[in-house]
């Protein structure tokens, strides 16, 4: 992929190593210490956790390798198009957004990534942990990965706590050093990881519910402040309502919502806005042009 660094980086190696270490501790130390791998409960938990770990690794690999969506070089906004209710313009000067580094216009919600050195469609942020931008083409994959990773982390914590508690009496009786120390060490490392992933998941669920990117959230805070200062009311133009917002990210087929595949609506150049569909409460009147950075 032009403009992108190589896939193998220290953060990626660290993520894969962490997944492998937690998986080994949970399946081969915690489950045997708590339930035993020869029991039905032990086999069931090992199988379920293995399936979740494989889904997590698959989603992570796709998030790393999937192109986030680049702006077509020939893109030119049509300001006379009556079907385009909204155009984003620069805050200074009021011109249409143009990337001097890429030498082309930027569609709505697109931004230039200084790491990837190109403009990304509906850019959310650049993530060092996947060495890739999170944009229109891979946002759903990234979201599904975070969901699987957070779920696996919480599941791991439950297995590790159970393994540590049930191995304590065995240690006292046998007097032999057991895997309990390794289980506890893994739990200490896993605790902040699980908390971080859960927080990240909640944050992106909030963004999906409001059809915002991370960049748009921060820009919206400023826009809201400016609107209130002028005595107006700010309304995020891409907020279509919770259900439509979810569908715009996860796709129309609910059965595929948890699959790490991208089923994007649209091409990332034009997006539906709240001015395209009737709402129960009409949004406040807004200008055709939306000032952006």
From TrEMBL:
Top-level taxon: Eukaryota
GO cellular component labels: endoplasmic reticulum; Golgi apparatus; membrane
Signal peptide start and end residues: none
Database matches in InterPro entries: Palmitoyltrfase_DHHC, PFA4/ZDH16/20/ERF2-like
Class of enzymatic activity (EC top level): transferase
Pfam families documented for this protein: DHHC
Ranges where the Palmitoyltransferase DHHC domain occurs: 95-218
Keyword terms: Acyltransferase, Membrane, Transferase, Transmembrane, Transmembrane helix
MF terms in GO: protein-cysteine S-palmitoyltransferase activity
Membrane topology (UniProt): Multi-pass membrane protein
GO BP term (any one): protein targeting to membrane
Catalysed transformations (reactions): L-cysteinyl-[protein] + hexadecanoyl-CoA = S-hexadecanoyl-L-cysteinyl-[protein] + CoA
UniProt-annotated location(s): Membrane
EC number assigned by the record: 2.3.1.225
Transmembrane segments: 12-35, 41-63, 141-162, 182-209
Family: Belongs to the DHHC palmitoyltransferase family.
Comment text on domains: The DHHC domain is required for palmitoyltransferase activity.
Protein name as annotated: S-acyltransferase
Chain's gene name: LOC123444914
């Amino acid at each position: 992929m032009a403009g992108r660094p190589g896939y193998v980086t220290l953060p990626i190696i660290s993520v894969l190593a962490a997944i492998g270490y937690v998986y080994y501790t949970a399946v081969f130390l915690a489950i045997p210490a708590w339930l035993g791998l020869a029991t039905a409960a032990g086999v069931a938990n090992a199988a379920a956790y293995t399936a979740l770990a494989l889904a997590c690794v698959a989603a992570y690999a796709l998030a790393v390798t999937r192109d986030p969506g680049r702006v077509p070089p020939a893109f030119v906004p049509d300001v006379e198009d009556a079907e385009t209710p909204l155009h984003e313009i620069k805050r200074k000067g009021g011109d249409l957004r143009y990337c001097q580094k890429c030498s082309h216009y930027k569609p709505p919600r697109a931004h230039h990534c200084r790491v990837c050195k190109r403009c990304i469609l509906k850019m959310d942020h650049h993530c060092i942990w996947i060495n890739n931008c999170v944009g229109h083409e891979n946002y759903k994959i990234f979201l599904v990965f975070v969901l699987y990773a957070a779920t696996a982390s919480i599941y791991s914590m439950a297995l590790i706590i159970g393994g540590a508690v049930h191995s304590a009496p065995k240690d006292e009786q046998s007097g032999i050093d057991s895997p309990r120390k390794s289980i506890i060490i893994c739990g200490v490392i896993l605790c902040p990881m699980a908390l971080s992933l859960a927080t990240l998941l909640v944050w992106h669920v909030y963004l999906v519910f409001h059809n915002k990117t991370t960049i748009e959230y921060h820009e919206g805070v400023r826009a809201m402040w400016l609107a209130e200062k002028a005595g107006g009311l700010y309304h995020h133009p891409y907020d279509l309502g919770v259900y439509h917002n979810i569908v715009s990210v996860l796709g129309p087929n609910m059965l595929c919502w948890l699959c790490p595949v991208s089923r994007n609506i649209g091409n990332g150049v034009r997006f539906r806005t709240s001015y395209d569909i009737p709402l129960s409460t009409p949004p406040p009147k807004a200008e055709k042009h939306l000032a952006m950075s």
